[in-house]
Amino acid sequence: MRSDLRAVAEPARAAGMQAYMKSAMPYLGVTAPAARVAFAAVFAAHPLPDRASWEATVRALWDGAEYREERYAAVALTGHRRYRDHQDPGTLPLYRELIRSGAWWDYVDEIASRRVGPILRAYPDAVRPVVVAWSAAAADDADLWLRRTSIICQLAFKGETDLALLAACIEANLDDRAFFIRKAIGWALRQYARTDPAWVRRYAEQHTDRLAGLSRREALKHLG
């Protein structure tokens, strides 16, 4: 994977990509389309025989990364269709580690909505307590991203949204003024407003004294 990414890198792009993402880790300069092609080719050429090998490879790509695209490869591997049977509550400790050590939106939002969310939907009884615990994680720089995950993991649920869980995760963080928490609250509410705008309006009204301005604007963005 590392050699294939280097082969399609455009070094002239690297500095701009790093600046845009405000990343301490440098980029190779691989565009998203080129990265997807490289990921698909390597995953097809090197199937992993079991869950242990899959998780070990994810960790090796992630922990040994010198460039951000290598971590993108690790995230892509977690979601590859060949390994969909590994998407169960047993994988949450891995995702927790990636969320805390990645600690930035480009990694976290993908894992939250496309990995943790589907596991929550498939195993609600087992996963709901984990998400609730994440929503109340310590207020430090790493655990902020667990709290963001708890808020946005149901973005794609529409009418299947667990409203009690969504409300609990939001309310655990209403007093946090960190940008990425305020944005997550607004995003989650705005997304659910596509399904039930009346519920979101009521929620905004009921929490008018605690809902941050950014969260409110995002939540009501398409509601007038």
A few lines on this structure:
The protein has 224 residues and is mainly alpha-helical.
Structure description:
The protein has 224 residues and is mostly helical. The chain has 13 helices and no strands. Helix content is 66%, strand content 0%. The N and C termini lie far apart (47 Å).
- The whole-number mean of residue pLDDT values reads 97
Strand content: under 5%
**How much helical structure, as a percent, in the residues?**
55-70%
The total count of helices amounts to 13
Shape: globular
Low-confidence stretches: none
- Rounded to the nearest angstrom, the radius of gyration is 18 Å
* Overall SS class: mainly alpha
Instruction: Give the distance, in angstroms, between the N- and C-terminal Cα atoms.
Output: 47 Å
Sketch the topology as an H/E string, one letter per element.
HHHHHHHHHHHHH
Total count of strands: 0
Query: Describe the biggest sheet?
Result: none
